[in-house]
Amino acid sequence: MKLKSLSPRACLNSIRYAIDGIIHFFSEEPNAWVHLFFTIVVIFMSAIFKLSEIEKFSVIIVTGMVWVSEFFNTAVERIMDDFSKNYDPRIKVIKDLSASAVFLSAVTAVVAGTIIFIPKILAHVHPYFYQKG
Fold it and tell me: Residue 78 phi/psi, 5° resolution?
């Protein structure tokens, strides 16, 4: 098998295809806007509460995990929809598993966000809740 060379043109085309995918995602997927809204909220909260480096890293990882799983879920759903227009219980299982990945990544992000932000919110509301350990 011959390896393809990575020319500047091929690299730019890859970036263009990725951007086309993002544009398509936002124009066709209502969930994209929900994820974007919560991502913006998390970015603002991260700035307001001045997260530590490890907290910032954690927020970036879990947020990215949700986005990546949503993109893959969308791809799987599109493939399955193109594969068969009729109801097929096997396709339902595949699509349900793909949706479950998004759900689990979102739950993980919510748990991480709760662990990071709730103590900061409580400390902001009343210093009594903040205890250095």
Answer: -65, -45
DSSP letter for each residue of the chain: -PPPP--HHHHHHHHHHHHHHHHHHHHH-HHHHHHHHHHHHHHHHHHHTT--HHHHHHHHHHHHHHHHHHHHHHHHHHHHHHH-SS--HHHHHHHHHHHHHHHHHHHHHHHHHHHHHHHHHHHHH-GGG----
**Of 40, 65, 56, 48, whose CA–CA distance to 120 is shortest?**
48
Q: Tokens 């907290």 correspond to what residue?
A: 55
User: And the tokens for 20?
Assistant: 């086309």
Q: pLDDT tens digit string along 80-96?
A: 999 988 999 999 999 99
Chain segment 38-62, per-residue pLDDT in tens? 999 999 999 999 999 999 999 999 9
pLDDT at 131 (0 to 100): 58
Q: Which of 120, 125, 22 is nearest to 75 (CA)?
A: 22
